[in-house]
Design brief:
Elements: H1 2-14, H2 17-44, H3 46-52, H4 60-72, H5 74-83, H6 92-106, H7 110-135, H8 137-140, H9 153-163
Length: 167
């Protein structure tokens, strides 16, 4: 997402509206694909990952629950970051805190409750950011068509080159 912001800023400066549109589509498609692949890997290899991290046996069940639930939220987390990296503070932190208190203190969901709160707050933020983008779609030249989400190899290479140092 940061690489996309950098590249889009460069394209805006250059006045290259055609490539901005292709970049946004490529960024959204690539982050969605990456989120799904990482979520699948986190779920499939949950126990081995936790064992590599020396998770104590008595915390293993809670840690697995937390890891799986948050992995299911990856597409929303990645989507939120890709759609509105600049608008990251759209209230997600406040929602997360309130949901943490309700799900842990009231419903006694422990680690799973905090994972659910995190995933739901990111989902809400992703939806709010998408609605913002959709309502201002003319400004962003955003279209909800399959052709808009076609990945451009040249732009993907730039995004990866700019994004790798961010990791």
């Amino acid at each position: 997402a940061t690489a996309g912001q950098i590249f889009i800023a460069q394209l805006v400066g250059a006045g290259d509206d055609r490539r901005i549109k292709r970049t946004v589509g490529t960024l959204l498609s690539f982050t969605t694909l990456l989120a799904v692949l990482l979520a699948a890997a986190a779920i499939l290899f949950c126990r081995p990952i936790l064992q590599l991290l020396n998770c104590p046996q008595e915390a293993l069940f809670e840690a697995e629950s937390y890891m799986i639930i948050t992995a299911l939220g990856y597409p929303f987390i990645f989507g939120y970051n890709a759609i509105c990296g600049v608008l990251r503070g759209m209230g997600a932190a406040a929602i997360n805190i309130v949901l943490d208190i309700v799900l842990v203190a009231v419903f006694r969901l422990d680690a799973a409750g905090t994972a659910i709160a995190t995933a739901l707050s990111q989902m809400g933020s992703c939806v709010a950011a998408f609605i913002f983008l959709w309502k201002r779609r003319e400004h962003f030249d955003f279209e909800l068509k399959p052709s808009y989400f076609r990945m451009d190899k040249e732009i993907l290479a730039v995004l990866i080159r700019l994004g790798i140092p961010q990791v």
